[in-house]
Specification:
Helix content is 26%, strand content 26%. The chain is of the alpha+beta class.
Length: 258
C-alpha cells in the first residue's frame, strides 16, 4: 500500500490499445470563453442542510441557491459486476471494522478528474462548450483497474476503499491538466498535483486509517484479484467520453474515436 491519499468529497491487446492514445492538445483550440459575472457581488441564499438526509455526510461547502455541487469524471461500465466486488469488499470491511462506523457501497462508481466544484448555474452553457472543445482533442484510450488503496477526504471525515488505475493513468493526467486550464477561467480549483486515479467502491464516516494494516490490505487485494480472474473484461475498459455532473444534470463530452 502506498499510504493513505487525501480524497475530494463531493472507480495481450493492452499495450497496443494504450499506445498513441492521445493527441497533443492544441491549447488554442479550446474555447477561451470569459467567465461570467463574478458571484462575489451576488446575494447568498443559504439553506439549512440536514445531514441525516445524507447518511451523516457533511458538505464540502455550504449550499447556496444557484450553486450546484459538480464534478467531472470518467464513467465506469459494468456497474452490475462491480456491485459484486463491492459486496465482497463490504463483507471483509465490516467484519473487521473496529471503529463502529459501517462501510457502504458507492452507488455510481467513477474515476474523478476534478475535485467537487461549486458551480454557478449560469456558467453551465459556456463551460459545456469549453469542455466539448477540450474533450475532442483527446483520442479514446483504455484503462485497467487492479490495486486496492485507501483514501481519506480533505475534511478527514470519510474513508474510501477503491481500486487504482494501473494502465491509462498518463492519459488521464493529460486530460486533468487540460481540465485545470478550463476551470481556471472560472476561478475553480484545480485537481490534486499528484492525483491517484481510482474507482472508489466503499465508504464510511470516520477517518478509519488505523484499521488498514498491511495484512488487511493484502486480504482486500486477494478479494480484488479473485474478482479480476472471473471478470477480466470489467477491469479493462475503453474511455471514450468524460462526464460533467452538475447537481442532478448529467452531460457527456465525447473523446475522438477516429
Amino acid at each position: 500500500m502506498n499510504g493513505l491519499v487525501s480524497y475530494p468529497d463531493s472507480g495481450s491487446d493492452e499495450e497496443e490499445a494504450t499506445s498513441e492514445c492521445m493527441k497533443s492538445p492544441d491549447s488554442s483550440a479550446v474555447r477561451n470563453l470569459p467567465p461570467p459575472v463574478s458571484v462575489s457581488n451576488q446575494s447568498k441564499c443559504g439553506t439549512t442542510d440536514d445531514i441525516e438526509q445524507h447518511e451523516g455526510r457533511i458538505r464540502s461547502f455550504e449550499h447556496e441557491r444557484g450553486n450546484w455541487a459538480s464534478y467531472i469524471s470518467v464513467t465506469v461500465p459494468y456497474a452490475e459486476d462491480l456491485n459484486e466486488l463491492s459486496d465482497s469488499l463490504l463483507e471483509q470491511l465490516n467484519a473487521r471494522s473496529t471503529h463502529g462506523h459501517p462501510f457502504h457501497k458507492i452507488d455510481n462508481p467513477h474515476i474523478s478528474l476534478t475535485r467537487t466544484l461549486k458551480l454557478r448555474h449560469h456558467w453551465l452553457n459556456d463551460l459545456s462548450l469549453s469542455l466539448e472543445s477540450m474533450a475532442a482533442l483527446f483520442r479514446s484510450f483504455y484503462v485497467s483497474l487492479r490495486d486496492v488503496d485507501v483514501y481519506v477526504n480533505d475534511e478527514r471525515t470519510r474513508t474510501f476503499v477503491g481500486i487504482k488505475v494501473v494502465c491509462g493513468d498518463e492519459q488521464l493526467l493529460k486530460i486533468v491538466n487540460s481540465l485545470n486550464k478550463v476551470l481556471a477561467m472560472y476561478n475553480l480549483p484545480p485537481f490534486y498535483d499528484e492525483p491517484s486515479f481510482h474507482v472508489s467502491l466503499c465508504w464510511c464516516l470516520y477517518d478509519a486509517k488505523g484499521d488498514f494494516t498491511d495484512e488487511f490490505i493484502d486480504d482486500l487485494q486477494d478479494v480484488v484479484d479473485d474478482w479480476v480472474k472471473d471478470n477480466e473484461r470489467c477491469s479493462f475498459f475503453l474511455v471514450d467520453h468524460i462526464l460533467l455532473k452538475a447537481g442532478h444534470k448529467l452531460t457527456t463530452f465525447s473523446l475522438d474515436t477516429t
